């Protein structure tokens, strides 16, 4: 019997885009450093999560703490990225300027209208049985919220 293969559900888009690239990245472990733009997005995501997390339990999010978390992640990445990537045409200094504005704007203008029930919850694993073995999809959700529907 083949072993169960664990795969992050978020990787499936790239599987259908280019199966060989997906295989290289997720099965063989060959990684291409992220671009500055991708790293900027990851850093913004972390900052906004710092703002939203206390709000889930009725607390107040802090714009300053969200911006601080963004800046920290931008300058202390968890994963390798290419700061000199010409693809995005953005320097780290420019990325910081853009990110501070976006995180601040999210906290002040967007987040107050959203009511989340969870931030970064683990999704339950989904196991897909195949003739070659089981595939277990794992991952986290970005945010969960309850939306009232009219009608």
Could you characterize what this model shows?
With 151 residues, the protein is of the alpha/beta class. The protein is built from five helices and seven strands, in the order E-H-H-E-H-H-E-H-E-E-E-E. It is flat and about 50 Å long. The mean pLDDT is 85.
Query: What is the H/E order?
Result: EHHEHHEHEEEE
Number of strand segments: 7
The coarse overall form would be flat
Task: Give average pLDDT, whole number.
Answer: 85
Count of helix runs: 5
Beta-strand content: 15-25%
Quaternary arrangement of the chains shown?
single chain
The biggest beta sheet reads:
3 strands, mixed
- Tell me roughly what share of residues is in helical segments: 40-55%
The neighbouring-strand order within the major sheet is: 1-6-5
Poorly predicted runs: none
Name the features:
about 150 residues, 3-stranded mixed beta sheet, about 15% strand, 5 helices, alpha/beta, single chain, two-stranded parallel sheet
Concise account of the structure shown:
With 151 residues, the protein is of the alpha/beta class. Helices cover 45% and strands 17% of the residues. The chain is built from 5 helices and 7 strands; from the N terminus they run βααβααβαββββ.
Set out the fold topology.
Layout: E1 5-8, H1 12-17, H2 19-27, E2 34-35, H3 36-56, H4 63-75, E3 81-82, H5 92-110, E4 116-119, E5 126-130, E6 133-138, E7 143-145
Parallel strand pairs: 1-6, 2-3
Antiparallel strand pairs: 4-7, 5-6
Helix pairs in contact: 3-4, 3-5, 4-5
């Amino acid at each position: 019997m083949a072993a169960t293969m664990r795969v992050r559900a978020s990787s499936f888009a790239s599987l259908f885009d280019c199966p060989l690239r997906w295989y290289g990245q997720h099965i063989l472990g060959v990684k291409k450093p992220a671009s500055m733009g991708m790293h900027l997005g990851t850093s913004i995501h972390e900052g906004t999560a710092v703002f939203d997390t206390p709000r889930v339990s009725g607390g107040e999010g802090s714009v300053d703490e969200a911006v601080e978390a963004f800046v920290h992640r931008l300058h202390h990445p968890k994963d390798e990225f290419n700061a000199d990537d010409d693809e995005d045409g953005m320097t780290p200094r420019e990325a910081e300027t853009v990110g501070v504005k976006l995180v601040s704007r999210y906290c002040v203008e967007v987040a107050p209208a959203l009511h989340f029930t969870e931030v970064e919850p683990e999704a339950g694993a989904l196991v897909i049985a195949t003739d070659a073995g089981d595939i277990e999809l794992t991952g986290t959700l970005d945010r969960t919220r309850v939306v009232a529907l009219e009608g």
